[in-house]
Amino acid sequence: MSPRAVVALLIVLAPALACAAAVWLNAVDVPVADDWARAELLEPGSVAGSFSMDAPLPRWVASVNARFFSGDLRLEMALGFCWVLVNALCVYALCRRTFRDRPGTATAVGFLASLLLFSPMQWEAFLWAARAWSFLPFAALSAGLVVAGSRWSRASKLGAGGVLAAVVAASLPVGAASGDGPRAGLSALPALLGSPFSRTHILPPETLAPVAGGLLLASFLVLALLVVSSRSRTEPRVRALPWLAIGGLALLAGAALVLVVAPPRDVLLPRYTTIGLQLCVAVLPLFALVASDLHSRLAASEVGLRSVLEHAPAFGFGALLVVIGMGWLVGLEGMHGWKAARLRARTALIFLDRFAPAHHTHLGGDAGLDAVRVAAKTLDRHAQLRPPMADGEDLDPFTPGGALAPEHGELSSRRVARDWVEVRGFAWLAEQRRPADGVLLTVRVGDGPRRTVALAEVRDMPIPHLPEHDHIYNRARFPQIEERGAWAARVRRGALPQGVAFRIEAFAADAELLELRRLPGDFVVERSEDGLSARRENGES
To answer: How far is C-alpha 257 from the chain's CA centre?
Structure first.
């Protein structure tokens, strides 16, 4: 390759490097909803019917990963990222073929397409092992289009196409349309297509997504009509065929999704933004082709109109770059929120056999806490739950990590009744810039060992730019930022020691480093025939 070609390739792959760093920093090896189905692969019948992994290929890969590669979910996330990389490289190859006489345009279109394909707006697909398969059909199609336009023999092309078709077929869910039949209708398609471009601070996504999706769909249809009906040579129409195929697949995937899979309220979820981004990838080269064709047809027109046409692609690409950049910022924020939610789930999983989390649906969707507990124990028995579940009343697998400063956390209030003790406070991990992943309450008699008696969940603000109904992330709406990091727990008398006096302490959990940070404000509880009473170390009640 020439130095210029190498530079162009590096420009196109720059978004891949940035996205890879974001995925690496935010990926967490904690099962999410349908990920629990891998417990069924290790012990058939353990959680049958509770979780689904309907597509054959994801099930095979999960089985191989579980049996031979320790079951680390980040390996499957990396595989999903590789499919996006293959897609981006094939799209760039198609751009070079489409604009072979204009390498600058090929690089610009390839760079914008790469920004779309690697957009962190798809954080749910990037960071959820069971959702990474949404990238595969588009990667297979772009690879097939590259093969179809290559100089390979016809037999080689047919063989490669057959392999790609088999891989795609094995990655598609079986029985996805079962149940109540179509639940949404095509009226939800514009919202689905516009979801990647609706996360702004101007209008709510529910309002902006149908408008953005309608404009994107209309642009694709108009550009396709202009290319197909062009009166110039047939070459532009031939160059447009790959992009018509990519756009057509995006529309088919979107229509199938809204008809049989996602209710209208779910089309804005991050896991589905891939479809709208793929359609936009198809629109980019079609726009460049149409603009070039119009420019050549109006070359003899007045200078003003020709000048406008010459700068139209630059203005259009610049505006799209701003929109994509906003999506990247929102997506990176969403990735950070996903990581925080997964780490809170990890803390809950460690102690799931002893303490039921108040908001447990982020662990297993709608399957129920009992099914999650069974699946977690199954994975734990096979050493595929990292860290393992706690099997006693001590603080394992956490290690002491010092104390939090008073401005970052505190056991700030307490209420003591005859049969229970209630404590409240806040806990903030300043170094990680997020709330603690949970607060463990311990009791200690004298200088004896600490014993855990409660796990308090820590409040976090909802991930922004998501529908309010999203049951995985937005557990509740907290109107005041001061509530971020707040926690509360109530311990019943039966869980407390039988001794005359014992100390209650609180520890903020960092599930990423597996450290516990002690919170200021512990106190002593005295037990008598009249009930419980609390006092500070200095005797203050």
So the answer is: 18
pLDDT in tens, 314-350: 677 777 888 888 889 888 888 888 888 889 889 999 9
pLDDT of 539 above 50: no
Model pLDDT, residue 475: 40
Please provide residue 409's backbone torsions phi and psi, each rounded to the nearest 5 degrees.
-175, 155
295-298 long-range contacts (CB < 8 A, ≥24 apart) are 296/232, 297/232
Closest CA to 506 of 460, 432, 456: 456
Separation CA 110–CA 95 (nearest Å)? 6
Whole-number Å distance between alpha carbons of 143 and 84: 11
Q: Coil, strand, or helix at residue 427?
A: strand
63-72 pLDDT, tens digit per residue, is 888 888 888 9
What pLDDT score does 370 carry?
Answer: 84
- 206-240, pLDDT tens digit by residue? 888 899 999 999 999 999 888 887 665 566 778 88
Distance CA 304, CA 162 (A): 51
d(CA 343, CA 436): 9
Please report the pLDDT score of residue 468 as a whole number. 45
Place of tokens 């760079």: 111
- Give me the half-sphere count of Cα atoms (radius 13 Å) on the Cβ side of residue 134: 25
Whether 8 and 103 have beta carbons less than 8 Å apart is answered as yes
Measured CA to CA, the distance from residue 230 to residue 488 in angstroms comes to 67
Spatial CB neighbours of 144, under 8 Å, sequence gap ≥ 6: 160, 161, 164, 165
196 and 280 Cβ atoms separated by less than 8 Å: yes
Is residue 388 classed exposed, middle or buried when 0-12, 13-18 and 19+ CB atoms within 10 A define those classes?
middle
Instruction: Give the closest residue to 363 by CA, choosing from 378, 346, 339, 380.
Output: 346
Which residues does residue 413 pair with via DSSP β-bridges, in sequence order? Answer: 424
Any idea how long the chain is?
Answer: 541
| pLDDT value at residue 176 | 45
Considering only the C-alpha atoms of the chain, give the largest distance between any 2 of them, rounded to a whole number of Å. 101
In Å, what is the CA distance from 391 to each residue of 319, 374, 505?
56, 15, 21
Beta bridge partners of 429: 434
Q: Give the Cα separation of 303 and 171 in Å (integer).
A: 53
d(Cα 140, Cα 165) in Å, to the nearest integer?
Answer: 8
User: What's the burial of 207, exposed, middle or buried (CB within 10 Å: 0-12/13-18/19+)?
Assistant: exposed
Tell which residue, 272, 192, 303, 286, has the closest CA to residue 241: 286
Per-residue pLDDT, averaged over 504-513, amounts to 92
Q: What is the pLDDT of residue 493?
A: 77
**DSSP 8-state secondary structure symbol assigned to residue 408:** T
CA-to-CA separations, 489 to 162, 400, 439, 443, 492, in angstroms, rounded: 58, 21, 9, 13, 10
Residue 83: what pLDDT?
Answer: 94
Quick one: tokens of 438? 């949970």
* Apex 325 CA angle, 324 and 329, nearest 5: 115
At CA 91, angle to CA 280 and CA 58, rounded to 5? Answer: 90
CB atoms within 10 A of CB 487: 24
Residue 452, token pair as written in the block: 């855990």
The tokens describing 414, both together, are: 């307490």
Cβ atoms of residues 283 and 291 within 8 Å:
no
